[in-house]
Structures are given as structure tokens and as C-alpha cells.
Specification:
There is one protein chain. The protein has 2 domains: 12-69 and 110-199 and 297-371, FAD/NAD(P)-binding domain (3-Layer(bba) Sandwich); 79-104 and 202-294, D-Amino Acid Oxidase, Chain A, domain 2 (2-Layer Sandwich), CATH 3.30.9.100. Helix 1 (22-33) packs parallel to helix 4 (110-124), helix 1 runs parallel beside helix 9 and helix 9 (325-344) packs antiparallel against helix 10. By secondary structure, the chain is an alpha+beta fold. The chain is built from 11 helices and 21 strands. The strands form 4 sheets. Strands 1, 2, 8, 9, 10, 11, 19 and 20 form an 8-stranded mixed beta sheet that branches. It binds flavin-adenine dinucleotide. Flavin-adenine dinucleotide binds next to helix 1, strand 2, strand 9, strand 13 and helix 9.
């Protein structure tokens, strides 16, 4: 890997990054800026709706280091002045970010945010290959990676859109000195290398997007809101276009008993809350569909090995209660890139040290999360009993 203008490559490169979310783009940007030849493989369209639209203020310095803060700031996202939580009592407590060291966070248009990062990685010199990783094989001093194409090569996404419909085409083969798994929670590459994400619980998110109401909504309260319930908790936040995201969080095995997978029951339960319902006042109807997603913390062990590293959710995923998944994805993307560069420069302990750091971050998260769940003691129900038993 030489410093200077990165060379474009077709079938052979220094680093292959699998996944075009925040972690993959952060890793690609950091690597390309250090002079590495990078190919980023990602599907033309996301596998599922992009979820996660509150960007914590701590993302600011990371985006600045990646050289994309200016673009993100001008990209039409809305400020987020903090969060409210009805947790452990009937009244809301407030956390304001306005006076914090990094100022307000953002309510993201998540598709536009991810697209901006992807375009920045391409503009910096990463070659985007549209498709998905199908197989990976270790050869003496490089990897051979087989991809299946799911669209045309090159960036198909434009700001605010999710790209063209994916079509399966011919696959291809790439060789790379290093591979980065940034495929999100499934950690598809790491699994193929014998590592697997271990999950701490079966937390599940049932998410609905409420479209911007007609007639121009009043300026929404630019804060997120969490409200606990006997079976879990609600989360809601405004979207930059006047819409709103609403999530019910419970355990996978409790969904059937609560009927939360039924859109009408989900909506009726939201309307029965003490606080969330006030944020839903402009809407008369539930959203057309609910997206169901795994949401509990997980950690891939090991998160790196000779010639490879997992970053973002593929390395460690956090409970959405912490609202720091994107920050972790950016940070671990950059750290994973640093470890690869250090390994290439001859520091043979760099990737193992990175893997230990991921485990430590995960343990730290489990501890902080256990403390947070202990603060809610009003219900002796399965969801809470499980979390009260956990000490982190
Ligand atoms: C319900 C819920 C709510 C959340 N809310 C928030 C929030 O408000 N704020 C926040 O900061 N975080 C939130 N998060 C977490 C946040 O969304 C994630 O931490 C973040 O998206 C992780 O980024 P990533 O790049 O690691 O993975 P992802 O964003 O999942 O990206 C993975 C990429 O890999 C690609 N891919 C998959 N398979 C392959 C393959 N075989 N080959 C190539 N590419 C592949 C995918 O298409 C995608 O581009 C939430 C998570 C959940 C579950």
C-alpha cells in the first residue's frame, strides 16, 4: 500500500471491503486516504429498509476526520436537540445535547446519509462494485473472493433514493491482501472465516414509518422519546421530511403473546401510552407495514484475524436504547482500517489488539446497558426479569 493517489483496480486490490453502510464507508475512506487500493462491494439496494435515524452528537468529530462533515451538515437532515425518557417513573426525564461538547445531533434521512458516505468513499478513490460476497477462500498471501452481482457496476444511488431495483447477474472474482467484513449484524464474511456473532438476548424491533401528514405539520419537537412498558419499550423520533419513526421493542418470544406483530394492535398499544401517543397526534392511521428486525447486542469473536477484520455491527452491535450504533460503526470502521494499515506496516499484533478492543467495547456496552435496564423496576414481567438478572 503506497501513499499517493490510489490506483483503480479491477480484479486485484489491497483491501476488499464488503458492505456499504457507515462502517464499510468509514473503513474504505480511511484506507483509501492512507493510499490503499480499495474495492467496496455492496448491493445496489439495501436488503431491508434502513433503520436508525438518530445520529448522536459524538458522530461529528468522526465525520470530520473522515472529511465528510461539511457535506452531511448541508444534506437536509434535521437537528436533534436530545432525548426524553419515561423510564423508571411516570414523568419524563430529559437529556439535552445542545450544551454538550459536540452540540446537537441529527435526525437523519438515513438513505441519504448512507448514500453520501458511499459517494464520498467513491470520490476519494474506492472502487465500488455492486453485488454481494458469496464465497471467500484463503490463499498463501491473499484472499480470493467471489461476488454475485445484484445490479450494474458503479453508484446507482442518488441522494435520498435507494438505488435501482436489484437484478441478479453474473458474479466475479476479486483478489485482495485484506478483507473487511462490514456486512452488518449477519457478519456474513466473518462467519465464512469461522467467527460468529454471539447474541446477548432476543431483543426485536417492530418499526413503522409514519409518512409526513398532509397539510404541513406543525414544527415537531426535535427530540427522541423512549417510554417503557411492561413488555418492553417504545421509541419515537421525527424524520427530517415531517414523518416519524415509531418502534416497539420487545423480545422475539414475547411478540406473539403481545400481538405486536399485528399492525392494528401495535397502533392501539401506542395510542394507549402515557407520552408517546402525544407525538402521534397528527396521525389517524397506523403505517402500511411494520418492519421486524433483530436489535439485541452482539459481538463477533474474534472480530479480526490474519488478513481480515470485522467492523461496525458485523464486529459488535449495540442495543438501540444506547442510540450509538452509527457512531460505533464509524469508529470501528476507522479503527479496523488503522489495524489493517498497522499490520501491513509490520505490526503483527495490530489485528489481534483490534479484536480485543472490540470485545472490550462490547463488555463495556453490556455493563452500561444493564445499569440502564436496572433503573426500570416497575414491572415484574418476563422482559424486565430477564434484564434484571443480567449484571452485564
Ligand atoms: C431497530 C434499530 C434502531 C436503530 N436506531 C439507531 C439510531 O437511532 N441511531 C444509531 O446510531 N443507530 C441505530 N441503530 C443501529 C445502526 O443502524 C447500526 O449500528 C448501523 O447501521 C451499523 O452500520 P454498519 O455499516 O455496520 O451496518 P449496516 O448499516 O447494516 O450496513 C451493512 C451493509 O452490508 C451490506 N451487505 C449485506 N450483506 C452483504 C454481502 N454478502 N456482501 C456485500 N455487502 C453486504 C448491506 O447491504 C449494507 O450495505 C438501530 C438499529 C436497530 C436494529
Amino acid at each position: 500500500m503506497k501513499a499517493g493517489t490510489p490506483r483503480r483496480c479491477d480484479v486485484s486490490c489491497d483491501v476488499l471491503v464488503a458492505g456499504g453502510g457507515p462502517a464499510g464507508c468509514a473503513a474504505a475512506l480511511a484506507l483509501v486516504r492512507a493510499g490503499a487500493d480499495v474495492v467496496l462491494v455492496a448491493p445496489a439496494a439495501p436488503d431491508r429498509p434502513r433503520i436508525g435515524e438518530s445520529l448522536a452528537p459524538a458522530a461529528g468529530p468522526l465525520l470530520e476526520r473522515l472529511g465528510v462533515l461539511g457535506r452531511i451538515a448541508l444534506d437536509g437532515h434535521a437537528p436533534c436537540y436530545g432525548g426524553r425518557a419515561v423510564w423508571g417513573g411516570d414523568g419524563p426525564s430529559e437529556v439535552s445535547s445542545v450544551l454538550g461538547p459536540y452540540g446537537p445531533g441529527l435526525h437523519l434521512d438515513r438513505a441519504r446519509f448512507d448514500t453520501a458516505l458511499l459517494e464520498a468513499a467513491e470520490a476519494a478513490g474506492a472502487l465500488r462494485r455492486t453485488g454481494r460476497i458469496r464465497a471467500v477462500e484463503r490463499l498463501p498471501d491473499h484472499w480470493r473472493v467471489t461476488t454475485a452481482t445484484t445490479g450494474t457496476t458503479g453508484s446507482t444511488a442518488t441522494a435520498g433514493t435507494t438505488g435501482t431495483a436489484a437484478t441478479t447477474g453474473a458474479g466475479g472474482t476479486l483478489t485482495a491482501r485484506y478483507v473487511v467484513d462490514a456486512t452488518g449484524r449477519p457478519a456474513r464474511l466473518a462467519r465464512r472465516l469461522g467467527a460468529a456473532p454471539g447474541r446477548s438476548d432476543r431483543l426485536t424491533a417492530l418499526t413503522g414509518i409514519l409518512a409526513a401528514p398532509g397539510g404541513g405539520p406543525a414544527e415537531p419537537e426535535r427530540t427522541s422519546l423512549v417510554e417503557s412498558t411492561p413488555w418492553g419499550w417504545w421509541y419515537t423520533a421525527p424524520l427530517p421530511d415531517g414523518g416519524r419513526v415509531l418502534m416497539a421493542m420487545t423480545d422475539a418470544d414475547l411478540v406473539a403473546g403481545t400481538l405486536l406483530h399485528d399492525r392494528d394492535v401495535w397502533w392501539a398499544r401506542a395510542q394507549a401510552t402515557g407520552h408517546v401517543r402525544h407525538r402521534l397526534a397528527p396521525w389517524r392511521e397506523p403505517p402500511r407495514q411494520l418492519d421486524v428486525a433483530t436489535a439485541g447486542p452482539s459481538c463477533t469473536r474474534p472480530a479480526a484475524g490474519p488478513g481480515w477484520a470485522a467492523v461496525g455491527d458485523a464486529a459488535t452491535a449495540t442495543d438501540p436504547l444506547a442510540a450509538r450504533g452509527i457512531v460505533m460503526a464509524l469508529a470501528t470502521g476507522m479503527e479496523g482500517a488503522r489495524a489493517i494499515l498497522a499490520d501491513h506496516a509490520g505490526d503483527r499484533g495490530a489485528l489481534a489488539a483490534y479484536a480485543r478492543r472490540i470485545t472490550a467495547l462490547h463488555e463495556e456496552h453490556l455493563h452500561a446497558r444493564a445499569v440502564q435496564y436496572q433503573r426500570e423496576q416497575r414491572w415484574d414481567t418476563p422482559f424486565w426479569r430477564r434484564r434484571h438478572r443480567t449484571t452485564g
